[in-house]
Amino acid sequence: MALRNILTQEDPSLGKKCREVTAFNQRLHQLLDDMAETLMHADGVGLAAPQVGVLRRAALVLETNVPENENPILIELINPVVIEASGEQHEAEGCLSVPGEYGIVSRPETVKVRAQDRFGNFFEVSGEGLTARCFCHEIDHLDGIVFTSKCERMLTDEELQAIQHRSEETED
């Protein structure tokens, strides 16, 4: 495994639509393994292949809605498609390709995705809250969309500090 560089929003590759993955081979497995290491090193909750310069429909999402004292689950999504969405959430969202910036984005509260695993097997996975947000965010990357283009508004430093302060209070 190897750490890959995460492209930032200035890179034109992030605005391009990715091609479908058709070869489920060692090269794909290496990409997914490298992306996983890169995601963990960056302390993120999702990463799409175009963020590391690969224009293929592959993404990772960290499922954080797990029982207390259990590790988050890393979900590999190849050629993902949202097949169901319901509800609505308006929350602060950030991106590893837009470091230090956050904005309010409307996303579905629950999402069901159909995708393939690293071996080409189809599966469906559902997520709610942050996981649903991540599914949508990463699939947007695969379509050349960065969250800043969907923001209702970007957050000021003061608003971001207030959100972080409230989060720290609930953790105590």
Question: What do these coordinates show?
Answer:
The protein has 172 residues and is an alpha+beta fold. The protein has a single domain, classed as Peptide deformylase (Peptide Deformylase).
Secondary-structure topology with pairs:
Blueprint: H1 26-42, E1 46-48, E2 58-63, E3 73-86, E4 89-95, E5 98-107, E6 110-116, E7 122-128, H2 130-142, E8 153-154, H3 157-171
Antiparallel strand pairs: 1-2, 2-3, 3-6, 4-5, 5-8, 6-7
User: Biggest sheet: strands side by side, in what order?
Assistant: 1-2-3-6-7
* Largest sheet properties: 5 strands, antiparallel
The rounded distance between the terminal residues' Cα atoms is 35 Å
Number of helices: 3
Helix content: 25-40%
Low-pLDDT regions: none
Average residue-wise pLDDT: 94
Number of distinct beta strands: 8
CATH class category label: Alpha Beta
CATH architecture: Alpha-Beta Complex
| CATH fold-level name | Peptide Deformylase
Rg from Cα:
16 Å
